[in-house]
Amino acid sequence: MTTDVEVAGIGLHPFGRFEGKAVTDMGVAAVRAALADAGVGRGGFQAAFCGTAYSGVAAGHRVLDALGMTGGPIVDVEAGCASGGAAWMLAAGAIAAGKYDTVLVFGMEKMPKGIIRSSFFAPWQEAAGIAATPAYFALRAQRLMRESGVTRDHLAAVVVKNRRNGVHNPDAMFRKEVTAEEVLASRLVCEPLHLWMLCSPNEGAAALVLRRAGDGADSGRVTVEAAVLRSHLPGNVLSEATPMSGLVDDDVPPPTTLAATAAYEAAGLGPSDLDLVECQDTDAARELLSYEELGLCPRGDAAKLLEDGATELGGRLPVNASGGLLSKGEPLGASALGQLVELTRQLRGQAGERQVHGARVGLGHTVGRGANASVVILKR
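Above: the chain's sequence. Below: its structure in token form.
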């Protein structure tokens, strides 16, 4: 970043199911909250970037039109689950480049119920039965079990951890603790993943206001140290390390590792400097794989990091203190930005009972179909 960028305001519409509430209404609620937090009114921002996948044409325009705040550039961004991360990268980059002083970035979604269908897959793939999302997740989990010593008990433990954290998050969809026995007793969806090991597609919105940091700004401000988006390298269809990915060469780094490496370099920081992480836990195995791909532990040690309690709230490096997607659910366009709202709250010391004490550096990570990987580092 050539110019310091700081988080000026945050806003969130809770994640869950809201019958009768339009996605635009949820976006409006999150944007209003973020603008109020930043002390920004009409004409106070020069551009807006909206992350969404299912909200239709000109979704961001509809939100700002409802607020009477159109007139400037409004850009809708789609990158699967990383849509919000992609919008964030563009917003932060525009300020860092000196184009704007203040930018609004928001994301919202009203997901269909059930397993997500994606136009990413060709019709022949769907017809052949190889496009179902749980199949990819399950194959990835099986490979992780073989290569990193992960067991069903580890997968269940991730759910137990995240659901325990979610109890203290009033914006989460699920706010009840579960036991490993209950997780393993839930319906088997696709070996080895049980129903409670999969996040729930749902509804919600998140918004943040970014601005150029002025000289002599408050030392307690939250700054953007890195905002990186990377895609898969040629030959690896989903870069999800599954047998269906079409690639056998394990030396090809996945997009998460590409993004994390670039983010650490841009921030001048490394995994050992992090105080907390909000990472993609679309399913329980995805969180464990993220430990390795983000460099939080050596390859093959994800199970050990979990067993050591390092990723627990109160551990050396809490992961998904918000409850993660396994507690919050996942409205795609709001997913990455919801993580950044959580990280900002944590770095401000405003996370209540789930507060990571003394937190100064946080990392947000999402992976979207494509494959797109977003890594953002915030610092207080």
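Residues 239-243 have pLDDT under 50 and may be disordered.
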